[in-house]
Specification:
267 residues; alpha/beta; TIM Barrel; 8-stranded parallel sheet; 8 strands; 12% strand
Length: 267
Amino acid sequence: MIANTALDAAFARARAERRAALVGYVVAGDPDAATSLAVIEAITAAGVDVIELGIPYGDPLADGPTIAAAGQRALLAGMTFGGAIALAAEARARGCAPLLFFTYVNPVDRYGAKRFASEAREAGASGAIVPDVPLEELDAFGPSLREAGLAIPLLVAPTTPAARAARIAAASSGFLYLVSRLGVTGARREPDVAWAASAIERLRASTTLPLAVGFGISTAQHVAAIGSVADGVVVGSALIDAYAGSTGRDAARKAGDFAASLRSALQ
């Protein structure tokens, strides 16, 4: 599992520092590839431990308006599935934080699971999150990613029964992704900290994987609250909002400043 080493090390380092890992989400190619790279470098320098790189897609079922709009901007700018993999390779070559792809079943199917796994590994990615795949259909692409040494973090929602959550945890790798509330991603709805705390306590009995929480986490206060109970905190829409409408160095500065404020909340 060579490709997972960087991801495992990121969570281990955060744990050694007695804090949760900060996971930042960026859409590949939003608003252009050069800006994406600059943003990734800036948030890495600001202390983001892990990066989710969203591959833009026209029907992003789990994404709220902010990420959906970012995906549309990226698609209009010419970003493709293969282009996102190339962008990841360049980001890793520049020393960015460990990176996972965030994509959907249909694009992976169209691109080819084995091809995706091989190219993702060559790009230096640590894994892929595919939020719309049910546990029962993971075999459609899971074996290809696992053979390539790539992690497959799976999602547990507030409505997931405890027994099923345990099965999802057993099939997951890299970390387990807990969705903090029902609905799509977005910065305008509060995360359910109480649910996250109880779910984490329950799941620790069935997995040794790091437990990361995402969806609705948008402020330093949210990060501090979730970080006090979880092993990782995922921030997406709010990070994208921080530099939306900007390009190049300006976007990188805004993203870096916002990421640094979140990272400080985990000290």
